[in-house]
Amino acid sequence: MIANKRQSIMDAAKHAFSLFGYKGTTVAHVAKVAHVGKGTIYTEFTNKEQLFEAVMDELIYDVELQFHNIMQRDGKTLDLLHEALYGVLRYRKEHKLLAQLTEEVNVFGTQEAHMAIARVEELILKQIERVVERGANRRRLLVTNPKVTAFTIYKLYMAFIVDWEQNEPPLSERELYDVFKNHIFDGIAIRQP
Fold first, then answer.
1. Which pTM value belongs to this model?
2. Which terminus of the chain, N or C, has fewer Cβ atoms within 10 Å?
3. What is 126-155 written as a DSSP string?
4. How far is CA 57 from CA 47, 100, 119, 125, 144, in A?
5. Could you write out the DSSP letters of every residue in 72-128?
6. Which domains does the chain have, with CATH numbers?
7. pLDDT in tens, 44-54
8. SS3 191
């Protein structure tokens, strides 16, 4: 237990934050799930905020790694960008902790939950912007402002993955790709003669 104490606490914290959100989770909840005393948690983390930040750091690392692994493959930049975005945004939508935090922001407006979601979105936006800049630098994409383009792509993906599905059947990955290829990607891709 000693060697894995921190990880055991982190796993318990992920579980508790996923069930109760930031606002509803206490150090006592985490201690109970981890089968340790509250004092043990305080030997590893100063307070609930530091524990939550550690959980979010790990989650953000996972999202960044998922995006990075896809973008390192061979293939067309826009195809890889679609695959990475689709995967990361599905992950964001279906991950229990992120879903709970999103709900908490919508219902209670909890500042800590809002900041956590904003960190994830900022990471995704920076990853998209990096890909768009790389494509523009290689003269494969015609964009004047990579940051605006990244924001537009992200918000449209979110709209189709979250908002669209509130009233319509979800689009398949292929259908979503076709929408973006026809309406966005073909508009910014430079045609090679």
1. 0.85
2. C
3. HHHHHHHHHHHHTTSB--S-HHHHHHHHHH
4. 16, 17, 9, 17, 32
5. TSSS-HHHHHHHHHHHHHHHHHH-HHHHHHHHHHHHH--HHHHHHHHHHHHHHHHHH
6. 49-188 (1.10.357.10)
7. 999 999 999 99
8. coil
DSSP 168: S
Q: How confident is the model at residue 190 (pLDDT cuts 50, 70, 90)?
A: low
Phi and psi angles of residue 17, each rounded to the nearest 5 degrees, phi first: -65, -35
- CA atoms within 13 Å, Cβ hemisphere of 139: 3
Nearest residue to 153 (alpha-carbon basis) of 172, 179, 174: 179
DSSP 3: T
> Which tokens is 102 given?
């999103």
Can you give the length of the chain in residues? 193
Q: What is the pLDDT of residue 180?
A: 87
47: three-class secondary structure by DSSP: coil
Hunting for tokens 């305080």 — which residue is that?
Answer: 42
The highest-confidence range among 89-93, 143-147, 181-185, by mean pLDDT, is: 143-147
User: Does residue 104 come out as left (phi exceeding 0), alpha (psi in the -120 to 50 range) or beta?
Assistant: alpha
Q: Which structure tokens are listed for 167?
A: 């009233």
